Amino acid sequence: MQPQRRVIALFDVDQTLTPARKTIQKAMVEAINKMGDHGVDFGIVSGSDLHKIKEQVGEDLVQKADYTFSENGLYTLRKGQFFSKMSIKDQLGESKLKKLINFSLRYIADLDIPIKRGTFIEYRTGMINISPIGRNCSREERDEFEEFDKTANVRKAFVEALKSEMGTDDLTFSIGGQISFDVFPRGWDKSFCLQYIEKDYDEIHFFGDKCQPGGNDHEIYADERTIGHEVSNPDDTLKIINELFLVGGELE
Ligand SMILES: [Mg+2]
To answer: What is the Cα–Cα distance from 185 to 189, expressed in whole angstroms?
Structure first.
């Protein structure tokens, strides 16, 4: 008899585990529980902070998750308990951080887009999140901006401007979600979390919806340590979980 392969499935949150910015559906929680019954460990990998992750997937699931990598693994929980932590200000230093924030504030001030709200720049432990419209817009305004940006490419142009101002030697820029992009130290994308688990598993699956170059799931999706699954929504995720882990999949 062969020893059981150690397998973990990691999931992005928005549009992968949950509809964008909404809470998790019952069917997804059930599928994850069943996955556990089949011996597959479960992890969450999100650019969001822990508070936002808990809002979307619920406290219970975070307690149950073998790993919750919030802010791409810069603040990590194991089975709901503190595991590890790192910060962007220690890595970059205050002067570089200030240069980045000052440039972005000026750029946003000069930006001509249909509407602006508030909270344009959010400082997180491991990244700076920048939103041209402002994070405290309504859900409707958020949806409208996402549509608008598909052709206006406001975020793409902003990222290019930041790249030429700040350079790319020690910074990475990543467009994700509907209204913002993230700036973080190079290598601190979602693949950052893999260092904590690569030795403990024979197989690391990753599920995400922004897997193409420039998307915030790309690096971990393309990483040779993972088996990547690109999904378009939570239903898609459910379908692949079923095929892969539950119905006559490779673990049966
Ligand atoms: Mg996503």
So the answer is: 8
Q: Does residue 125 form part of some domain?
A: yes
Establish if 143 belongs to a structural domain: yes
- Ligand 1 centroid vs 236 CA: distance in angstroms? 13
Q: In which band, very low, low, confident or very high, does the pLDDT at 188 lie, cut at 50, 70 and 90?
A: confident
The CATH number that applies at residue 119 is 3.30.1240.20
185, 210, 226 — which closes off a domain?
A: 185
Distance 49 CA to ligand 1 centre (A): 14
Model pLDDT for residues 96-123, shown as the tens digit of each residue:
999 999 999 999 999 999 999 999 999 9
Q: Supply the mean pLDDT for the chain.
A: 93
Q: What is the total count of domains within the chain?
A: 2
182 is in an annotated binding site: yes
* pTM recorded for the entire structure: 0.74
Neighbours of 214 (CB within 10 A): 14
Q: Sheet harboring 121-123: ordered strands across?
A: 121-123, 128-130, 180-185, 171-176
Structure tokens at 8: 């973990």
Distance CA 60, CA 244 (A): 24
pLDDT computed for residue 2 by the predictor: 58
* 235 labelled binding-site residue: no
Residue numbers annotated as active site:
12, 14
Q: Which domain holds residue 156?
A: 88-185
Instruction: Specify if 252 maps to a domain.
Output: no
* Residue 247 CA, ligand 1 centroid: distance in Å: 25
Annotated binding-site residue? 169: no
Same domain? For 52 and 106 the reply is: no
